[in-house]
Write a structure and sequence with these properties.
10 strands, ten-stranded mixed beta sheet, globular, alpha/beta, 5 helices
Length: 205
Amino acid sequence: MAAIFGVVQRKPIKPKRRTWPPPALPAHPWLCLVVGRRGYGKSYYARQVLRTWSEGGTTFAVDPVTPDPPPPDYPAHWATLWAARAPAELPAGVSLVVVDEADRFLPTAQGKRDGLLEDLVLRGRHRGTSLLLCTQRPALVGYDVRSQANRIVVFRLTAEEDLKAIVSVCPELRGREDEIRALPVGRALVWDDKHGVWPELPAAE
């Protein structure tokens, strides 16, 4: 593997048979926020998006806890490029960026931020780049970032501040907090700005 801009270039990987396709993604560039407690399906969802990405171009995963080389259960394994943190600039041709543990990089109420990822949140879609952000703690991701999402995938959350953070940008989920607290592994509620709340995302087979 060759390092480019501090990013590791991976050989193309032929996708395996899909066992659980995520809901259809919009044709235009999008920002998807995936939230939930550890072990309930966030990384699986991100892996499936990377494995089934059909928009062409390069996929790039940012994950601060990925081993080297990334094993198959890490989203970075399925990306063309990956890094432990975002480089100073995005390599040419990237059409999808997946960020795990996104709260470590993005603006919060305390002002912590990563310049490239903040720029992608605010302007990436205008450049034709889609962005998928995963976090266990949506309350640690600033409102300005959360409010930019045009799709939110909610796996199980139990902390009151995290539930409030999601409801603040997705009021259609107000009153469904107990349902979110009880979601089993592999199930999620999905909201987007075109359809509102989708039917419950089914568990992986």
